[in-house]
Design brief:
Belongs to the short-chain dehydrogenases/reductases (SDR) family. By secondary structure, the protein is of the alpha/beta class. The protein contains eleven helices and seven strands. Strand 1, helix 1 and strand 2 form a beta-alpha-beta unit. The structure holds NADP nicotinamide-adenine-dinucleotide phosphate.
Amino acid sequence: MKIAVITGASSGMGREFVRQAGYFYRSLDEIWVIARRKERLESLRKECRVPLRIFDGDLLKKQVYRQYHSGLKEKKPDIRMLVNAAGFGKSGTFSEIASEDKKLQPDMIDLNCRALTRMIQLSLPRMSKGSRIINLASAAAFCPQNGFAVYAATKAYVLSLSRALSSELRSRGIIVTAVCPGPVDTEFFQVSGELTDPLKKLTMAKAPAVVHKALKDSRKRREVSVYGASMKAARIGARLLPHRLILRAEELL
Ligand SMILES: NC(=O)c1ccc[n+]([C@@H]2O[C@H](COP(=O)([O-])OP(=O)(O)OC[C@H]3O[C@@H](n4cnc5c(N)ncnc54)[C@H](OP(=O)(O)O)[C@@H]3O)[C@@H](O)[C@H]2O)c1
């Protein structure tokens, strides 16, 4: 049985990966979707040409991994694609976020880094030549960010891990792509806080286009997928300029 596994499938880019996966892979038997909001996952069935298997659960808790692991043991699927899209961010200074809720920053690290790592650990034994892993990093991975410090650090982890994995798994023919978009119009901002920066609002991308590019880049075996000219420029800027200067400039904005 050939499957795709997609976390964060109940909204935003994860949901869009579910919609597009059936067109990207013509021979998928099932898509396994993971998120907390079951009714959202159920409603996706109508939009998807491939049958869905739903794992509704919190990736910050153990139960959903147990269910996923049992599913793998029972069905012994051939995982053609794993998309790690579950994640959240919170804007504000480190101290502001910590005083709002002490759990937010550790939870952000646990979801964006630990959950993604655990999903790869569980899935890799069932992947083979031509399988692909797509990890949702962010343009925030390119350099440290004032007012988004923990989030940017978690995404730097995702980018770094993805690049190393891409190199380690090349000999097995498994493709790993880190997706690094700038702002994308999803529910992300309901959790992180609304965007106030007019420049970021101006460069807001649409989820279907970002996901389409990510799938195309993965097919081209690209390690990193960056959507849009402004984010490509930001990536080059972050490579050329000292990060100390970028942080100073952010302070002035
Ligand atoms: N939107 C942007 O501007 C942007 C830019 C760059 C990168 N990204 C990254 O792209 C990824 C997708 O974000 P998005 O924009 O599509 O945001 P989104 O619409 O808020 O989707 C986030 C997904 O993660 C799931 N999720 C959150 N907490 C979870 C938990 N504890 N357990 C299981 N699932 C959980 C949510 O489902 P439930 O709530 O149903 O659990 C939802 O399906 C994230 O990793 C984000 O950091 C986003």
